[in-house]
Amino acid sequence: MTEAELHKQVADFLSLALPDDAFWTTISHGLYLGANRFRAGARQKRAGQRPGVPDIYIGYGAGNFWIELKTKKGWVKPEQVTCHAEIKKAGGHAAVCRSLDDVIGTLKGWQIPLKVAA
Questions:
Q1: Residue 84: other Cβ atoms inside 10 A
Q2: What range does the domain containing 20 cover?
Q3: Which of 56, 60, 53 is nearest to 102 (CA)?
Q4: Domain count within the chain
């Protein structure tokens, strides 16, 4: 499974499964821009996007939750490790997930209720 396919699978699931009072979004990192992703990344950096920001943000209750999606073979970059540590230092939650099952387990671990059986 490619990272783009994993993103689609997770997005479809979150749209159905998260509670109505949760907010979620993906953070564009140029995944779908092909050769233009480097130019887009430079623009995002100039606009203030921090390096290593995870792919998905979920706001639920008073918490903020971040998920970095990686394929089975994908590796976590040093700036992602640093960003995840900064999120946690600020009271947030961050995790790396490599499958939809990982996402479901992470959401359950964070005690975010799901509307669909998983």
A1: 21
A2: 3-109
A3: 56
A4: 1
Give the SS3 label for residue 76. coil
Question: Using CA atoms, how far apart are residues 57 and 6, in angstroms rounded to an integer?
Answer: 16
Per the listing, tokens 């606009």 go with 47
The answer to whether residue 56 scores a pLDDT higher than 90 is yes
- Pairwise CA distance, residues 70 & 48, whole Å: 23
Are 11 and 110 contacting, i.e. CB atoms less than 8 angstroms apart?
A: no
The pTM assigned to this predicted structure is: 0.86
For residue 117, the 8-state DSSP code is: -
| Whole-number average pLDDT of the chain | 89
Kindly state the tokens that stand for 18.
């998260």
Q: pLDDT tens, 64-97? A: 999 999 999 999 999 999 999 999 999 999 999 9
In a domain, 117, yes or no: no
- CATH classification at residue 89: 3.40.1350.10
